Amino acid sequence: MIAGKKLPSRAAILVTGATGQVGFELVCAMQGIGKIIALDRTAFNLFEPSQMRRVIRAIKPVVIVNAAAYTAVDAAEKNSGLAMQVNAKALSVLADEARRVGAAIIHYSTDYVFNGDKNFPYIEEDKADPRNFYGVSKLAGEQIIASSGVHHLILRTSWVYGMRGKNFLSTILRLGKEKATIKIVDDQFGSPTWSNTIATMTAHIIAKSLAAHDTRQWWQKHSGLYHLTATGSTSWHGFAKSIFDAITIERVPNIIPILTSEFPVQAERPINSCLSNDKLKRVFDLQTPRWDLALQACLRFHGKYYR
C-alpha cells in the first residue's frame, strides 16, 4: 500500500528526464516491473509547475523516478538560477504532487555535495559542504525532498558516464580521434559510474518495493539517503587511461597527468569525492560492480570500441 491505496496490477512508474543518460537506461532496465511512463522535458518540464502538476495527477504513479537534472557543473556557476530551478525549486512541486497522489520519489544527487577534504570515502552521515554551485543546487534539492514528508530515496552517485549524451567517456573518445596528446587531471579521485549501473540498481530497488507485502510500510522503513556508485576509485587520468587501454583505435594519444591547478575551470571540484556504498548493500543487499569492470562492460556492449 502507498498512502492507503491498493496497487493496480500494473503500477504506473513515472520516469522524468527519459532521454538523458540515466533516464534512457532506466526505461530499459525497468521493463516488466510495471507500467513505465517515460517523459522527456517537452512532456514534463521542470520550468512549468502547472504542467508537472497536471501530468502527475493524470498518471497517478506509485513511484516517480526523477532523472531530470541540470548537470552542467561549470555553466552552473554563471547560470545559478537555472540550476536552482531544475535541481531544487521544481522538486517542491514534485514532492507536493507525489504526496497528493500517494507516490514515492526516487531522486538522484551527486558526490559534489561534499568538499573533498576527507581522506576516506564519504558516508551518508558526513556533513555536506559543496565547493561549487552545482553541488549547492543539488544539496538544496536533497533538503527539499527530505523535509517534504513524502516517501523517498535520494541516491547520490558520481562521475556518471555512458555512450549517450555529454560525459567524460564521450569526451575522451572524441579527443582521442582529434589529438595526439591529452592532458588529464590526476589529483582528483572518484568512482566512475556507468549510467546502466545506476538504472539497474534502481530497478532492483523498485521491484523490491512493489513486491513488499505492505508497500507503504516498506517505504516508511527504507526512505532516506543512500550512496550509489561503482565500487573502487581512480583519478580522471586513470579513468582516461583505462578507456584507451580497452578500445581499438588507429592512434592511441599520449595521456599526460596534470594537477588540478594546471587545468583551470569555472567550478571548483572536490579532490576526493569517493562515496561508500555500505549502506546500500546493508539495506538493499545490492552490490555495485567495480568501476573498471563496469567500464569494460559498457565498451563491450558498444562493441565497435572494445578490443
UniProtKB/TrEMBL annotation:
Cofactor requirement: Mg(2+)
NCBIfam families per UniProt: rmlD
Molecular function GO terms recorded: dTDP-4-dehydrorhamnose reductase activity
Stored InterPro entries: dTDP_dehydrorham_reduct, RmlD-like-bd
Record keywords, A-Z: NADP, Oxidoreductase
Organism: Candidatus Vallotiella hemipterorum
Gene Ontology biological-process entries: dTDP-rhamnose biosynthetic process
Free-text cofactor note: Binds 1 Mg(2+) ion per monomer.
Entry GO terms, CC: cytosol
UniProt name for this protein: dTDP-4-dehydrorhamnose reductase
Family: Belongs to the dTDP-4-dehydrorhamnose reductase family.
Catalytic activity of the protein: dTDP-beta-L-rhamnose + NADP(+) = dTDP-4-dehydro-beta-L-rhamnose + NADPH + H(+)
EC number: 1.1.1.133
Pathway involvement of the protein, from the record: Carbohydrate biosynthesis; dTDP-L-rhamnose biosynthesis
Organism superkingdom: Bacteria
Domain RmlD-like substrate binding span(s) in chain numbering: 13-299
Pfam families: RmlD_sub_bind (PF04321)
Function per UniProt: Catalyzes the reduction of dTDP-6-deoxy-L-lyxo-4-hexulose to yield dTDP-L-rhamnose.
Keyword Oxidoreductase in record: yes
